[in-house]
Design brief:
Elements (H helix, E strand, L loop, with lengths): L6 E6 L3 H12 L4 E7 L2 H10 L4 E4 L8 H11 L4 E6 L4 H9 L4 E4 L3 H13 L4 E2 L1 H13 L11 H12 L3 H8 L3 H15 L4 H10 L7
Parallel strand pairs: 1-2, 1-3, 3-4, 4-5, 5-6
Helix pairs in contact: 2-3, 7-9, 7-10, 8-9
Amino acid sequence: MNASSETRLLLADDHTLVRAGVRRILEAHPGFRVVGEVSDGAAALAALGDRPVDVLILDLTMPGLDGFEVLRRARGVAPKVRILVLSMHADPEYVARAVREGADGYLLKDSAVQDLVAAVEAVRAGRAYHSPEVQRELSELVRGGGSASPLAELTEREREVLKCVAEGLSTKETAARFEISARTVETHRANLMRKLGARSVAQLVRIAIRAGLVGPP
């Protein structure tokens, strides 16, 4: 097989054991070649910029730049790359957001052993591929008119602040991350409580975990 007929794959997941398992599945297929592994979003974008990649296999909950941010930026770095999300979350808001941000496929980790090769082949060929559970969630969203949860009403900065709350960052730490004032962070937090109907930080954390913005503690 010549190099041009290979499918070059980049793995982005912050769990070493997950990457190792995915790599074993992929490298058992003669048409696939893993050209890199990374553990965070910034490294994924850097790797896309310095080597040819046909398919990026992307987890969404990673430290620093998360998978959603990678989805937004990836094709600015590598316009032809296809992106297969590999996630543990089937939450409708999570799925809908990934699709909106440009995921070509969405595969649940618990079906990776059976379906990963087919999913990679599908997105490489320009077809969408979604796990059956994900297809059901997308169908429900279409029938229900689109909004999967109150998170659909949040601004991008409110999502970012919610993620910081769920990660346990203080007001000062959140302000430093986004180079905004502590008062602005407090305003965003108050808006989050109002929009999401939360009465405590603990409730905000539970909402963020259910929506897949962060993993469970």
